[in-house]
Design brief:
The protein has 226 residues and is an alpha/beta fold. It has helices at 17-22, 28-33, 68-76, 98-106, 121-124, 181-204, 210-218; strands at residues 46-47, 53-62, 81-86, 111-118, 130-136, 147-149, 153-155, 158-160, 165-169, 172-176. The strands form 2 sheets. Strands 1, 2, 3, 4, 5, 6, 9 and 10 form an 8-stranded mixed sheet that branches. A two-stranded antiparallel ribbon has the order 7-8. The relative contact order is 0.22.
């Protein structure tokens, strides 16, 4: 039996690639709204360049200030994967920098999401590779473990399972459970179409805003008459 704290699971069930690609360009705000405002990572997980992110999760549970298992995940990840790293939010030491990013780019990995610190951000901002992280530190990591790969983790306050769909833009990160992805995509498309209609009504100056007063009255608020 694999020793807890040192498990490496190589084979995982990934969301179907065609389904993953459907979320490309879908705003994370719309995705999160259709998941009950849940499954969006904390705002502390911020993008360090302008490249949006879509891919399937390879998860890493890392000891603080350590990136040994992060490195191993880089070797195991496949093109289109997003490596999601749980460092328990610790930003004392960076767990990745430019070298790891360039290696990931060569392997056609989609991006990194790190609930911890990175470094070499000036260089990373210039690279065509999506990186989200909680913070920055010049201190480098240790490489002693423990850690685990492709187990359920917590990142930015959200549970991430291996193979889930990760979507990131300038608003942040949404995590789409792979078993709910098709249903969620259809709901998100409906929301996009509704917003397009709202934009059109704004331009035509015919947007119905009656719901505001109706809601206020429903909670017992006295609404001034026009």
């Amino acid at each position: 039996m694999p020793k807890v704290g040192y498990r490496i699971i190589e084979e995982i069930e990934r969301a179907d690639l065609e389904l993953v690609n459907k979320f490309r360009g879908m705003p994370t705000s719309i995705i999160a709204d259709n998941m009950g405002r849940f499954y969006a990572m904390d705002s502390e997980l911020t993008p360090y360049n302008q490249f949006n992110l879509v891919g399937t999760a390879v998860t890493v549970k890392s000891n603080t200030a350590d990136n040994l298992f992060f490195h191993k995940a880089l070797d195991l990840a496949k093109p289109g994967d997003v490596i999601v790293v749980d460092v328990q939010g610790d930003c004392t030491n960076a767990v990745c920098g430019e070298v790891m990013v360039r290696y990931a780019m060569k392997k056609k990995i989609a991006g990194f999401v790190v609930d911890g610190a990175i470094r070499d951000v000036d260089s990373i901002r210039e690279l065509d590779f999506s990186v989200f992280a909680k913070g920055v530190s010049p201190r480098g990591p240790h490489k002693t473990g423990p850690g685990e790969i492709n187990v359920p983790i917590s990142c930015g306050g959200v549970i991430v399972n291996p193979g889930d769909i990760i979507v990131g833009d300038q608003d942040g990160i949404a995590v789409v459970p792979k078993e709910l992805a098709e249903e969620l995509f259809q709901k998100s498309i409906e929301t996009v179409n509704k917003e397009v209609k709202i934009f059109e009504d704004i331009e035509k100056e015919c947007l119905d805003r009656s719901w505001i007063d109706e809601t206020l009255r429903s909670i017992g608020c006295q609404v001034p008459s026009k």
